[in-house]
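Customer escalation, tier 2.

The customer says the design service returned an amino acid string that "doesn't look like it belongs to this structure." They asked us to rerun it and document both sides in this ticket. The original structure tokens are below, unchanged.
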């Protein structure tokens, strides 16, 4: 990377990152701020494949963005440093932008994983002790992603899709997260 590219990257990251949530987002509405930091992920399932006990790992990094009105993350599988040149089956290097919508009183979520041409849009809210994000894919298939078993040191992330029968949810992705920084 040359000097101009390096300076441009620093300027971009400085403009994107925020030190914390915006003052106009109330504490009760801040359902994602606890995620800020870095996480190690044990992959239990991905693309419906049961990977428990296989040692598949991933990493995720979360931070405040856009003047504190959004949380952005990066999910990477396999983790950097262990990534093969190209793993077509289990390749994830994507980002989520969770933006606060004061009119909706919920978070608008946009996920993209360019490594697999996968995109999702959802709405996120607290439901009991979980954070639940719901949406539908371009083909109309309903999706539900949940942060469950939330503690200061970990969480269980479950990504589900609604079967064509309209009543059965099936797990497409599942991760156990452990905080490593933040």
């Amino acid at each position: 990377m040359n000097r101009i590219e390096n300076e441009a990257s620093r300027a971009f990251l400085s403009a994107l990152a925020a030190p914390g949530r915006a003052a106009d987002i109330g504490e009760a509405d801040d359902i994602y701020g606890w995620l800020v930091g870095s996480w190690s992920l044990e992959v239990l399932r991905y693309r419906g494949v049961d990977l428990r006990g296989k040692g598949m790992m991933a990493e995720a990094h979360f931070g405040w963005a856009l003047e504190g009105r959004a949380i952005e993350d990066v999910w990477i599988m396999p983790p950097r440093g262990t990534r093969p040149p190209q793993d077509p089956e289990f390749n994830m290097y994507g980002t989520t932008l969770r933006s606060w919508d004061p009119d909706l009183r919920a978070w608008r979520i946009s996920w993209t994983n360019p490594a697999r041409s996968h995109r999702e849009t959802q709405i996120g809210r607290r439901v009991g002790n979980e954070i639940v994000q719901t949406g539908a894919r371009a083909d109309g298939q309903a999706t539900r992603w949940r942060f469950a078993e939330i503690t200061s040191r970990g969480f269980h992330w479950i990504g589900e899709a609604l079967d064509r029968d309209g009543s059965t949810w099936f797990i497409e992705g599942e991760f156990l997260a452990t905080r490593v920084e933040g």
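Tier 2 assessment: The sequence is consistent with the input. The chain is about 10% helix and 50% strand. Helices lie at 3-16. Sent an explanation to the customer and offered a walkthrough call.
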